[in-house]
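Q: Structure tokens for this one, please.
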Amino acid sequence: MKPLTPKRLAWICGSLAAVLLVVVIIALKVGAVPISVVDLVASLGRVAIGRSDQLPSEYSLIVFDIRLPRILLGILVGAALSVAGTGFQALLRNPLADPYVLGVSSGAGLGAIISLIVASRATFAMPLAAFAGALATIAGVYFLGRRGGQIETHTLLLAGIISASFLSAVMIFLMTTLSGGELRGITFWLMGDLTSSRTPIALGWLFTVLLIAIGAIYSTAADLNLLLSGEQEAMHLGVDVPRVKLLVYVSASLLTGLAVSVSGAIGYVGLFVPHVMRLLFGSDHRVLIPTAALGGAVAIVIADTLARTIVSPTELPVGAVTAVVGAPVFLYLLRRRLQ
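A: Here is the predicted structure, written as tokens:
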């Protein structure tokens, strides 16, 4: 395995950023109103030099008021879910760990729905309630999955699946108290919706919280590498295991709650993206965490583009598209682990 250097890390992240840029341009181009690449690049150039007033009003509405905010939101959500999945997989030493599979997304969704019923759309009520729901769920699943001081894979997965089912049932019960129009909107939102007009807080705030949470997890990257060999071994090597676990669990729950509060429950992104990045770049978390963030952004932008174009003019939930890819990956990993 090649040694990690700042130059190699920058080259890897730069390559993935270039892929993301290409995917964003394609996502801006395709849709019910197709736009040529030449016109798109020219328009982006005008905006970059401060001449956005020269753009036609209809063109500006489609590209910069509808598609671009949705794409930016998808980038934030994809990065959040992928890094959260990477953190859970490292701490639990389980390749099947994922915010959706462990029920963390369902806990965040329940918190978001409770906030909608109690506090309507108060600016920070939804994200805070979703974070509290995610944190409470991962704490419950973690304690249910421990036996004799050790984490049992099958018990953990079973606890996560049962928790997700129970929390989903509670969500359905609470949703019956809503009116018909609200019920349909929230049902679609829970399956994954990146419509930026439904985002309770500004993208700038989301980006700031995302950077802080990912930075907190990245600060433990070297410790996470040592934790892969076991908690006792890591403690003997000088790792403050309780501090690392608390920091990563809280940060990953914050990322999950943040993502669910603005986009609903988009499943399996935190499962298959980290595995793809491991196959491409290895399991060193100093590389895995930033590449998972970029890879998750690419995955969500592609999934959302397919969701709004594959059966146009009808739009699919983004979570349905990610589940088509993620569910088979989960079954493959589960079968390989049982062999």
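A few notes: The mean pLDDT is 83. The domain at 75-338 is CATH 1.10.3470.10 (ABC transporter involved in vitamin B12 uptake, BtuC).
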